[in-house]
Amino acid sequence: MQRGKKMNRKRWTALAIAAALFIISVLVNAVGILLSDKSETWSKNWLSLMEDSFSEEVIEDGDPLKKIVVLEVNGVIEDTGEAETFFSSSFYNHQAFLKMIKQVKEDDSVKAIVLRINSPGGGVVESAEVHNQLLKLKKETKKPIYVSMGAMAASGGYYIATAGDKLFASPETITGSIGVIMQSINYEGLAKKYGVELVTIKSGPYKDIMNPARKMTDAEQEILQRLINQSYEGFVDVIVEGRKLSEEAVRKLADGRIYDGRQAKALQLIDEFGYLDDTIAALKKEHRLADAQVVKYVSDTPWSSLFGVISNNAKPETEASELIRLLSRPSSPRLMYLFSE
After folding, report:
1. CB 73 within 8 A of CB 116
2. Which one of 29, 123, 133, 203 counts the least CB within 10 Å of its CB?
3. CATH superfamily of 52-178+242-338
4. Cα(301)–Cα(303) distance, integer angstroms
């Protein structure tokens, strides 16, 4: 018990130090502006610090003019806003990932990509955006994309995987969950029990659709079901196109159920069994990249460095980072390509 209290004290101390350093840096720069006539330059430098930039971490040595980049998708694929940009280093960052794709596209020394996915899926919009950008990358640069699935590449995670030329998974990988979901809660009964009434003033009959304080009407359910069906059709289309399967075959397996790697291979949802190393080895062999250097992108922003130090020493990830993610989530129901346990 005493040890736990000591660890919590260390974590909060580390966070306090980080906050103090941030405030001091802002104050120092503000004083600098007052003492000089370089506010425009400072503003540009400040904005540049806010932007994500990426350096390369070498995974396997080789020819730096012939590189394979490993792009990692870890966690739920959704755009959670600025909070994630500043405070999160291990969760998926949508805007940063799109910038990584752009960097891969513009770097002529990058000859191929390994998309490493460990995700239960995410937002319909974000998944489609990543998929679209990966297809553009392939079309405009002819750079091959091999996919390495981790413990899970389900729903939206599988959606983006279909942009790959070849898909690898372990026999134990959880994948599939092909479909769309929208969830909310209904606390009408609980509210009545405790005498709580939600007052709603609206401009139209459907403005408060999915209001958690009342039962959904049949008309509202029909409206939402049409949205779900349209997104589902889009999911089916990307699998048909990406995996070269018939629409009939896809619809039979796309009922929302999950599959392990063995089942996925039998259903032609993946191509080969293998882990990350196997995926890299196959890409090198099949695209004459035996001497290629393998790298992954890491953020160069000062914020990532600062909070990375705190994370390594005080390990606040489970408390602070998760709290930030929960607070930054929109409360409105969303269309999701997401495997919900």
Report:
1. yes
2. 203
3. 2-enoyl-CoA Hydratase; Chain A, domain 1 (3.90.226.10)
4. 5
Residue that the structure tokens 């660890």 belong to: 7
Give me the pLDDT at residue 18, please.
58
For the chain (341 residues), the mean pLDDT of every run of 10, in chain order, is 54 62 55 47 44 82 97 94 50 93 96 98 97 98 98 98 98 97 87 85 92 91 96 98 97 97 98 98 97 91 50 49 50 81 57
Cβ-in-10-Å burial (0-12, 13-18, 19+) of 21 comes to exposed
Enzyme catalytic residues: 155, 207
The answer to whether 336 and 125 have CB atoms below 8 angstroms apart is: no
Going by C-alpha positions, the residue among 52, 57, 44 that lies closest to residue 89 is 52
Predicted confidence at residue 286, as pLDDT, reads 98
Tokens of 225: 């079901």
CA distance 111 to 91: 27
Alpha carbon of residue 104 to chain centroid: 17
- Taken as a whole, the chain contains a residue count of 341
**Going by C-beta distance under 8 Å and a sequence separation of 6 or more, which residues neighbour residue 127?**
77, 121, 156, 159, 160, 337
CA-CA-CA-CA torsion for 103, 108, 112, 117, nearest 10 degrees?
0
Q: Residue 33 has which token pair?
A: 């502006």
Q: Which two tokens stand for residue 333?
A: 């129901």
